[in-house]
Amino acid sequence: MAEHLASNWRLREQRYQLIGNVCLKCGAKYFPPRQVCTVCRGTEFEPYQFSGKGELYSFTTLRQGPAGFENYTPYSVGMIKLDEGPMVEAMLTDVNDDELEIGMRVEMVTRRIREEGERGILIYGYKFRPMSE
Amino acid sequence: MRDVSIIGIGQTPVREHWDKSLRQLAVEALLAALKDAHVDEVDAIYVGNMLSGELTGQEHLGALLADQLGMNGIAAMKVEAACGAGGSAIHAGYLGIAAGQYRRVAVVGVEKMTDLWNGNVAAGLAMAADGEYEAANGISFVGLNALIMRRYMYEYDLVEEDFAPFALNAHTNAVNNPNAMFRKAVTLDQIRKSKKVADPISLFDASPVCDGAAALILSRRENLNGNSARAIEIAASTIATDTLALHDRQDPLWLRAVELSSIKAYAQAGITPQDIDLFELHDAFSIIAPMSLEAAGFARRGTGTYLARDGAIAIDGKLPISTMGGLKARGHPIGASGVYQAVEAVQQLRGEADKNQVQNARLAMTQSLGGVAATAVTHILRGKG
Q1: What is the number of domains present in chain A?
Q2: Which residues span the domain enclosing B53?
Q3: Measured between CB atoms, which of B137, B150, B199 is closest to A91?
Q4: What CATH code is carried by the domain that includes residue A69?
Q5: How far apart are CA B232 and CA B362, in angstroms?
Q6: Whole-number pLDDT of residue A1
Q7: Fewest C-beta in 10 Å: which of A42, A112, B105, B207?
Q8: What is the pLDDT of residues A20-57, one digit of tens each?
Q9: How is residue B14 annotated by DSSP?
């Protein structure tokens, strides 16, 4: 996995603020942002900040992690259908595995995703947790 | 367009080959295929492989293997489409002949996975999905398949056990395949009790990390050189794509690329799904088997598991699948799997499948998928039968 600072830095708006984009021609919203609209092939966009609220479409608990994540197992990840339409995949946090349920309301929080050893960088980003009603 | 036939097949056993490197495995399979075809040269070599750079520190496999085969000077290249690399290499070789550029080509699929630890392999495999938005969030390839399986079970009111007949069928068929990784019969009870890897996926729902190589010799139909009796025609060779990331799919429970490449393949071969005698599908995970059966037109949406429950997928069933063990039990050396499928389909169509022979097999379909079917490569092979 490429671990230059730049490859993480350039994704800061997506990872910290859930900023996607919206097609100026047809209004389709995207997260992650796209350069070509898959609905109308338009190429003019403006940034769009998602609310970070949505519902859990599916989830799983990983017992074995890929390199870089092996120290965090077991951890749960999910697909979240955002209220604005797009789906995101993220780690789930502040919840026990056995409380996870398809359809539950969840919200985005900013958390540490992983660290690159003692001398490496800390990578932050979005995770999702059950919404407090 | 020229007609293309398969005139030779070769394979190494699928194993953890600690004593053999990538080049040794690939050359072994290629030499076996050349011998089977009774030829000693080809105009080009296409190599299907996904992770040689990542897992073995070696890229540039085209030149490497042409050289190691003693054929340096000829055209050679690697074709990559994640786990669909093998099928994609066959497609590239097919086009080379169909277009009239080459008279005879070799296709080899090879993957050497056991030189690194499992965590590195998992990180490598995660590259089949979206590196910036899936892998970067710790979502492994197993994880993606688990997310689909959970939702599929929810939508269609199924439990883990409904998928067990797929693993059972694959392992039962692998017992009689000397080249399969797992040759010990398993029971439904063992499958039911196997431990979870990523809920709801358990060990028996996932294909193993392994090494292997498989090869084909393709030829113009008019250059069969005495091979005509055993030649198998490539009646269709198609590729279709879908969104790379699972989260970008309008319907994550429908394998759109499988549907598109299958429809194109049926049209190219001039047949319907009902004409297919056996189907080597991409059962890297149990969940992909029913979803492939649905998208390829063999079952209605949400009913793919019924074919397994009712025995239709067995060797003597209506639509045998994974007849030599499939990815699940023959093993899934990533970039090689698509070529193993074709080798096994040729064995079936020649009547050389021994105890696993599908009776009167004339049309075989193989399907090699990359990522969560972001690439789907479909081949239809026609025997003389």
Answers
A1: 1
A2: 4-117+209-223
A3: B137
A4: 2.40.50.840
A5: 10
A6: 45
A7: A112
A8: 999 999 999 999 999 999 999 999 999 999 999 999 99
A9: P
